[in-house]
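Example 3.2
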Amino acid sequence: MTTMSICCLQVGLIGSQGLKTIRYLTRGSFRRPTQCSSHNRRTTETYRNTLHATANDQEFEVVARNVVILLYILTSLEDGEPRDTDRNTDTVESVIHLWYSAFLPEDLADGCRRLVKPLFAEVCSDIRDKPASTMLGKTWEFGSQNNLRLVLSKELWIRLENYFDAVRLSQEAANRIRTAVTLAPERKDFRDRWFFKDATRFARVAKQRFREDGLLLPFGHPRDRFTVPNP
């Protein structure tokens, strides 16, 4: 999907500012269109028309993660000054952990509940009397240029409202469940053979550390703030 999107942007945008809308579809993680746009930074910085991205997936958890990340970005931009470099840097770092890290800092989890959850709660309060299987759409507008539309069944809207309340595990219990897979004793030979392919021993140490704690951080970075299991 990334290759196709990159080609679409390059062919459609370079030397063609008259193009009104760019559309591309993706399934699964929204990292694909994000990567596509970042790889074409020179093109997208000069493009002044519409960029329309559509994502669809059968797995609720994938859709929920995509929506939470996008709404967190958009609400964070609304909540502060657009040119606040420090705040934007913090937002980018937060999104990286929402995507990759198994545990989140308490302030990031609280920020998601404060900024994102009320948007879901508002929708759910309006659809209480609808049949469970009804497909319902909601469009959020941010500023004059950004909007996000989400279409789900009523049942999934209710699940989305409770997304950040679903985790009842302690940090220790969540890490035991995760490491039962990432450090499974019966898979040790597989891990050793995989590590053998790495170019340096430093890469092996870093990958082993990620398997142990699930945090995308520099190797010596403090880990004590990351205590909330990532939904």
